[in-house]
Specification:
single chain, about 700 residues, alpha/beta, six-stranded mixed β-sheet, four-stranded parallel β-sheet, about 50% helix
């Protein structure tokens, strides 16, 4: 009849881990107690082993009582007696680990307790400084709708407990919007997080430095994507992201010099728009990178009020003649001829490039592309996202045949199909094309293209799983480039190129002109330079493939290509990204022969100790998680420049793990495949799984915690 004596009798069984005997004695003990529910509280109040993390005797007794009550419902209490028990258990909940919360809430029916009483208890915990415990209990008791989200979440954010904040608002869209609005006010220019921390003097493990404007903006955009909230709710965060885009565009144009004036101008105009705050920053950047006349012309173009302009720009504006004139001098014929000498040129007439905007125009394209034995070079273009939420839709689908190239205006075609009630038109054609093993589809990094295509049209999300006859030249390039880089004497000029452009240079003698790569592909009409660039990107795949067919040995492939993959299970480029060698016709009509060796579905497995990475500073959680798994990890600090990752990667032979805008810059500074973009909206565990799968890292039990943490 004494719960404490029962507890004393159970302790030796727990120590000796005689679990079956222990469970029997617990059940026998509860059957002998006059009030098992009060008895459990006596035992918990009379011991402290249950306060630590993990399993304990207290946890074992509690969960066993929970099961026992289901078999003996008559022992449950009600009325005044239950209220007294609920008052006692609430004081225990403040100290117990999370694994005990749900069993105790269930046993003592706290979901039926007076809501005001529960809120008072949580408020008491909060005022004692137990912010984490107050939040966890609120989540378990579903008290969030009756609480102040700013009051509850602010101290958690200051302690870098963003995962708990996400859990707190996860089931409540209204609270998600309120939280994002609060965070957006913290992104305002001039806001100082120290003003908030002063209200929480003595807050343990306070990390206000992690809430600088850049980190806050990243957090806001991650939560916008996670909760599918309209980004317009967070104007300050969007302004900060646009400002970083502006800085990136100036870097590409004036430091790297890899963006044309036309592309740069398009992106500057679409980024700044009529936003006065961004226009002010644009003028400052123009003064820094260009000159006063250029800043004045942009001020005139954007109709910036004179009172917003620095005095020297306002003075320059008065000197300018009121007319629009081009930034750059008109390119001379000599410059165009020089360009032709330096870059890959399409070998087909301009008249054979067809820009298709209606389904009637596409009919001839379908008939030619879907012929059995056809070889098709496929590429896609979309507007650069510059780190904004979501994957941008495909704006242009290019399909190259031996004598002509078709450019499909996907936004127009999809709009027409929807108007005519025939949404299945595009998915039907794409699925026919990719599922037909008799048609060879050439791509370069085709998995990324298919992923973007699926984001554009949801009916195409499983296209990669049904794909047959797909040849991804990226995999051939990975073998070929390494060998060429070791033997090529003129490394300095070649390192300016990368990706497909570098492969075109190796195989066809001249690189692609990539100045249109970061074009605004949504803007219509497309410029002539964009049309030629898009056609070249798709057509060069045909010429590369023909070279492979003629001399497979020079690409590291066997000369005996008789073993084909025709008729084998579907190819999943998302998972494998491998060149599947098969007997198919080349663009010139000759037969290509595949390798006699079976191609594995992924690269050779490697162990974590042989996998060396450097994590960018927005992926510190991922870095710590990978280190737990035995991976050799270096992690950038918050104040480090992203480009430090490239220096470390080159010096120590590491793979860069990054996300968002920095990926655009970093991937150009290391070899192909040595920079990987991670989804920032996922948690560290999911990110780690993504990385391990991509690089085929096999983790064993011995690897766990094999490195110093």
């Amino acid at each position: 009849q004494d719960p404490l004596l029962l507890l004393k009798a159970l302790q030796p069984l727990w120590t000796m881990k005689k679990m079956k005997k222990l469970q029997e004695e617990i059940r026998r003990g509860f059957a002998g107690l006059e009030d098992p529910l009060a008895g459990l509280l006596d035992m918990l109040e009379g011991s402290s082993d249950w306060k630590g993390k993990g399993h304990s005797l207290g946890y074992c007794i509690t969960t066993e009582l929970q099961l026992w009550i289901k078999e003996h419902p008559a022992v449950q209490q009600s009325g005044i007696k239950l209220k007294k028990l609920q008052a006692r258990v609430l004081s225990i909940l403040a100290e117990c680990p999370t694994n005990l919360l749900d069993p105790l809430i269930s046993i003592y029916q706290l979901h039926t307790a007076d809501r005001n009483y529960l809120l008072e208890h949580v408020t008491h915990l909060y005022h004692k400084g137990n912010y984490k415990e107050a939040a966890i209990l609120s989540i378990r008791l579903k008290l969030q709708p009756d609480q102040d989200v700013e009051k509850m979440c602010t101290p958690l954010l200051l302690q870098d407990k963003t995962n708990l904040v996400e859990d707190y608002v996860r089931e409540y869209p209204e609270l998600q919007s309120k939280l994002l609005q609060i965070l957006d006010t913290w992104c305002e220019p001039g806001f100082n997080i120290r003003d908030i921390t002063r209200q929480y003097q003595g807050l343990s493990r306070c990390k206000p430095d992690k809430l600088n404007r850049k980190m806050l903006s990243k957090l806001v955009f991650r939560l916008l994507g996670l909760f599918h909230v309209d980004p317009a709710l967070c104007p300050n965060a969007i302004n900060q992201r646009h400002l970083r885009t502006l800085n990136y565009l100036f870097y590409k144009r004036f430091v790297e010099k890899t963006m044309t004036q036309e592309n740069w101008r398009d992106h500057i105009q679409s980024t700044v728009g009529e936003n006065r705050w961004l226009q002010g920053h644009l003028i400052q950047l123009l003064i820094k990178y260009c000159d006063l006349p250029t800043a004045a012309r942009w001020a005139q173009c954007c109709d910036v009020p004179k009172e917003m302009l620095p005095q020297e720009v306002a003075d320059e504006l008065q000197k300018l003649h009121i007319q629009e004139r081009e930034e750059e001098a008109v390119r001379t014929d000599g410059h165009e001829e020089s360009k032709k000498k330096d870059y890959y040129q399409l070998p087909i007439p301009r008249a054979n490039i067809h820009f298709l905007q209606t389904w009637e125009e596409t009919q001839q394209c379908w008939e030619k592309v879907l012929r059995p034995g056809q070889v098709v070079g496929i590429d896609m273009e979309w507007k650069p996202s510059f780190g904004m939420v979501g994957k941008p839709p495909v704006s242009l689908l290019q399909m190259a045949l031996k004598d002509e190239v078709f450019l499909l205006d996907l936004p127009k075609l999809l709009e027409q199909a929807e108007t005519e009630g025939e949404k299945e038109k595009l998915p039907h054609f794409i699925q026919l094309l990719y599922s037909d093993a008799a048609i060879t589809k050439l791509g370069y990094g085709m998995s990324g293209d298919l992923s973007s295509l699926a984001a554009t049209c949801s009916a195409l999300k499983d296209t990669d799983k049904r794909a047959r006859g797909v040849v991804d030249l990226l995999q051939v390039d990975k073998q070929k480039v390494d060998a060429l880089e070791q033997s090529c004497e003129d490394k300095s000029s070649r390192q300016q190129e990368k990706g497909l452009s570098l492969m075109v240079q190796h195989v066809l003698g001249k690189p692609l002109d990539k100045t249109e790569q970061l074009s605004n592909w949504e803007k219509r009409p497309l410029r002539e330079e964009q049309i030629l660039y898009a056609a070249s990107d798709a057509y060069c795949l045909l010429e590369i493939y023909e070279k492979i067919c003629k001399d497979p040995a020079s690409f590291g492939l066997s000369s005996d290509l008789t073993e084909s993959l025709l008729g084998k299970p579907s190819i999943n480029p998302m998972a494998t990204k491998q060149l599947h060698k098969q007997e198919v016709p080349s663009p010139s009509g000759q037969q290509c022969k595949g390798s006699s060796k079976e191609t594995s579905c992924s690269s050779a497995p490697i162990s974590p100790k042989d996998f060396k990475v450097v994590c960018d500073n927005m992926l510190q959680g991922l870095g710590r998680y990978l280190r737990c798994l035995g991976v050799d990890v270096q992690i950038l600090e918050n104040e480090d420049d992203h480009r430090k990752a490239a220096e470390i990667a080159r010096q120590e032979g590491r793979v860069i793990l990054t996300s968002g805008l920095p990926y655009q810059t970093l991937q150009s500074q290391v070899a192909e495949g040595r920079c990987f973009s991670v989804n920032c909206s996922e948690k560290a565990k999911e990110q780690a799984l993504q990385v391990l799968k991509h690089f085929n890292v096999q983790v064993s039990l011995a690897d766990i915690f094999s490195r110093c943490q």
